[in-house]
Design a protein that fits this description.
The chain is mainly α and 130 residues long. It is 73% helix and 0% strand. The termini are far apart. The relative contact order is 0.21.
Length: 130
C-alpha cells in the first residue's frame, strides 16, 4: 500500500476529501447536507463500509458516495481500483472476489478513513451555515 511506504499523512488527505464532500453535498442538498452527512457517518460506524455505500445508493446523496469512492481509489491510498468513480463501482469493488471485503486490514483502514473524512465534512458543512 502506498500510504505505508511513503509515510503519507492520511489525515491531510481525509481533510481534503472531507472538504470536497461537504462542498458537493451542500451544493446539492443545501440545508439538508449536515443531516445527510451525519446519518451517513452513523451508517458507516454502525454497519460498515458496504452498508455505507448501499445507503448512498438508496438516497439522493449529493455525490457523497462518489467522493467517498474517490477517496478510497486515490492513488495515494489505493484501496479500490483507480477507475472506481461512483457508488455502484465501489459496491462492486468491495464485494468482488479478492476485493476490499476479503482483506480485513484494508477494510478497517477504509472504514477509518471514511469516518475521518465524514467527520471533517460535517464540520465543514456546519461552518458553511455560520
Amino acid at each position: 500500500m502506498n500510504a505505508e511506504k511513503t509515510g503519507l499523512n492520511l489525515d491531510r488527505l481525509c481533510a481534503q476529501y472531507g472538504w470536497e464532500m461537504a462542498r458537493q453535498v451542500h451544493e446539492t442538498l443545501g440545508k439538508n447536507a449536515e443531516n445527510h452527512i451525519t446519518k451517513s457517518l452513523g451508517v458507516l460506524q454502525e454497519d460498515g463500509v458496504y452498508a455505507f455505500f448501499l445507503y448512498q445508493r438508496s438516497r439522493s446523496d449529493g455525490n457523497l458516495g462518489q467522493r467517498a469512492a474517490n477517496l478510497l481509489a486515490d492513488e495515494k491510498i489505493d484501496l479500490l481500483a483507480k477507475d472506481t468513480t461512483d457508488t455502484d463501482q465501489a459496491l462492486a469493488e468491495i464485494r468482488k472476489p479478492n476485493g476490499l471485503a476479503d482483506h480485513i486490514d484494508a477494510l478497517l483502514l477504509a472504514k477509518r478513513l471514511l469516518e475521518q473524512a465524514l467527520i471533517y465534512a460535517r464540520y465543514h458543512v456546519k461552518a458553511m451555515k455560520a
